[in-house]
Specification:
The structure is a single chain. The chain has three helices and five strands; from the N terminus they run H-E-E-E-H-E-H-E. The protein is of the alpha/beta class. The longest helix has 17 residues. InterPro entries: ExbD (IPR003400). Belongs to the ExbD/TolR family.
Length: about 140
């Protein structure tokens, strides 16, 4: 009589279907997940309470026009001279006692950059810090 236990053949588990299912789940979760963009700073702004809307009209905008040759116009009037001091005196006269006003610089596309810098310098010397530049989109008429 043989009393030794007989060895059974080792059981082989086929892992291929299990790996296939795991990879399919991985692909599903990767495709269905949405990623959050955290590039912005989150700032909680203070709330204003009891502030009534201002009934004042916005101040009149001071327009400086610079043509292609670098000639300055303050509104519709030509400014004689091309230096910051002359333009500054014309701006001071146009302000007529006001402390400040928004400034709009309309420079021709062919205007020398020095003329634009002169206009910025003249507005800075007068203490005007609300400066905007006018531009047109491609194909639009001014």
């Amino acid at each position: 009589m043989n009393l030794r236990p007989q060895r059974k053949a080792p059981i082989d588990i086929n892992l291929t279907p299990l790996i296939d299912v795991v990879f399919l789940l991985l692909i599903f979760f990767m495709v269905s997940t949405s990623f959050k963009d955290e590039a912005r700073l989150r700032v909680q702004l203070p709330e204003a309470e009891g502030v009534a809307a201002s009934a004042e009209e916005p101040p009149e905008t001071l327009t400086i026009v610079i043509d292609a040759e670098g000639v300055f116009f303050l509104g519709e009037e030509r400014v004689l001279g091309d230096d910051a001091a002359t333009l500054g005196r014309a701006i001071a006269a146009a302000l007529a006692g006001r402390d400040s006003a928004p400034v709009l610089i309309q420079a021709d596309a062919r205007t020398p950059h020095q003329a634009v810098m002169t206009a910025l310098d003249a507005t800075a010397r007068q203490g005007l810090n609300q400066v905007a530049f006018a531009a047109t989109r491609n194909g639009e008429a001014p």
